[in-house]
Amino acid sequence: MTPELLARYDGVRVPRYTSYPTAPHFTAAVDAVRYQDWLGSLATDTEISLYLHIPFCESMCWYCGCHTKVVARYQPVAAYLEHLRREIHRVADVIPGRLRVRHLHWGGGTPNMVAPDDFAGVMAVLGDRFDLTAGAEIAVEIDPRTLTPEHVRAMAGAGVNRASLGVQDFDPGIQRAVNRVQPYAMTAEAVARLRAAGIAAINLDLMYGLPGQTVDHCRDSADLALSLKPDRLAVFGYAHVPWMKSHQKLIDEAALPDGPARWRQFAAIADRLTGAGFEAIGLDHFAAPHDELAVAQRAGRLRRNFQGYTPDGSPVLIGFGASAIGALPQGYVQNAPDFHAYAAAIEAGGLPVTRGLPLSADDRLRRDLIERLMSDLAVDLEQVATRHGLGSDHFDPELPALDDLVADGLVKRDGRRLTIPAGARPLVRIVAAVFDRYLMASQQNGTARHSRAV
Predict the structure, then answer these.
(1) Which end of the chain is least crowded, N or C, by CB within 10 Å?
(2) Is 337 helix (H, G, I), strand (E, B) or coil?
(3) Inter-axis angle of helices 339-347 and 75-94, nearest 10
(4) Phi, psi dihedral angles at 330 (to 5 degrees)
(5) Predicted confidence (pLDDT) per residue in 63-75, tens digit
(6) 355 and 365 in contact (C-beta within 8 Å)?
(7) 3-state DSSP assignment of residue 322
(8) Which residues lie below 8 Å from residue 223, measured CB to CB, with a gap of 6+?
(9) CA distance 247 to 226
């Protein structure tokens, strides 16, 4: 990519496509009553995935884009967990049978804000109401700064077998600039404790585009991350969206790298990771060849959902907790983001869903196309159309919109087959956006606000 091309696309803002249609298009057309109907219609042999959202942290990382809040006392967390347990029981009461769980993910916020006994208690409720099979992946996002030996023992005892640790950058100066001071030794100790307890699969998160960050910072952080021998790494570009997350106003915008600098930072990390034998996965993940994510990509069954790239092919994702998003065959649902509204719905005897989106036939068609493009970096438009009972030329009217992207090297087109060149991997979202009808409408009415493409 030339500096001129990077500068041109730096101003493009597009969704991350962890779903299609994306969450900004959810509406109140899907409420708790409709969600209950969808849950009740699930077949008893359906394999599902579960997501639990813990929206609390001890301090706010200024780059954070998650739904979370800082608490100084445990009482709000304990009260929240009581409502979370009640929500689990309520959903399980509606579902026809004790469904098998293929994947369970604790996200946040900071899941290890939950006291060890409470973590074990919630896992016991889940094990009582759902069939947590021996082969299920149970993953937890972890902040090494607050991880204790008691947390590790509780997680291992509850069957956790994968841990995702936030790192971002190991440089102390960059850490101070984003209010997340986390020495390398602290992260290394957390990894050692987890592995010693039998939690063998380790994910690490790195970021580029942070204030004051350079290519050397990114390269050094990648090398230190590799020294911890992780199984997967996610490499996220910092999304500066202060209109959505007011705490990001504390970041010095003048210190943020521009588009070409961000590109060089990502490339430096990617070169280090692939040079060490990791396989590039989709937009921004890297996995060791033995990891299930790499295995799924080679087999053509890589998926993308609200937790990012996953080998999990479950047709149902049930989200628990404030702001949690779920996906069912009929469409998407989202719980109330506001803690008080979430708690009030539970106390009133209902489910806390406040919005969502029923999927149309066109939504399913384009979701299939965009997921394959985001996951495989290639898609055969004719095959997608045929899979959905449409003519092979269904997407032909949209092909001219790709002409400029083809000319700029963001995508190659061979008839109706699209392929993203390796060098354009970080810009795959721009190509996917060509097929996003909701984005086109929001751009026309001026309501589209997403993270930068580079």
Answers:
(1) N
(2) coil
(3) 50
(4) -80, -25
(5) 888 889 999 999 9
(6) no
(7) coil
(8) 272
(9) 31
Using left for φ > 0, alpha for ψ between -120 and 50, and beta otherwise, residue 320 falls in beta
Phi, psi of 102 (to 5 degrees): -90, -30
Structure tokens at 158: 């509850």
Tokens of 412: 């190659």
Residue 330 has which token pair? 């009929």
Whether the Cβ atoms of residue 454 and residue 259 lie closer than 8 Å to each other: yes
* Rounded CA separation 308/227 (Å): 24
Q: Which residue has the tokens 């029923």?
A: 358
Region label for 158, one of left (φ > 0), alpha (ψ between -120 and 50) or beta (otherwise): alpha
Read off the pLDDT of residues 346-378 as tens digits, 9 standing for 90 and up: 999 999 999 999 999 999 999 999 999 999 999
Who contacts 38 (Cβ-Cβ below 8 Å, separation ≥6)? 328, 329, 330, 331, 333
Residues 6+ apart with CB under 8 A from 414: none
CA 188/CA 429 separation, integer angstroms: 34
> CA nearest 326: which of 32, 123, 45, 78?
32
Pair of tokens at residue 454:
């580079």
- Give me the DSSP letters along 19-50: SSS-GGG-BTTS-HHHHHHHHHT--TT-EEEE
Tally of CB atoms within 10 A around 200: 11
pLDDT tier at 442, thresholds 50, 70, 90: low
DSSP H or E run through 392: none
**pLDDT tens column, 336-351:** 999 999 999 999 999 9
SS3 for 409?
Answer: coil
Determine how β-strand 285-287 pairs with β-strand 303-305: unpaired
What share of the chain in percent tops pLDDT 70? Answer: 96
Query: Domains, the chain, ranges and CATH?
Result: 1-21+360-454 (1.10.10.920), 23-320 (3.80.30.20)
**β-strand 353-358 against 303-305: which pairing, if any?**
unpaired
Q: Are strands 47-54 and 316-320 parallel, antiparallel or unpaired?
A: parallel
C-alpha 152/C-alpha 195 separation (Å) is 10
**Over pLDDT 90: what percentage of the chain?**
85
Single-letter code of the amino acid located at 388: H
Q: What is the DSSP string of 163-185?
A: EEEEEE---HHHHHHTT----HH
Q: What is the pLDDT of residue 445?
A: 47
Give residues with Cβ within 8 angstroms of 281, minimum separation 6: 232, 287, 293, 294, 297, 302, 309
Kindly state the tokens that stand for 78. 């304990």
- Measured between alpha carbons, how far is 234 from 304 in angstroms, rounded to an integer? 13
**For the whole model, what pTM was predicted?**
0.94
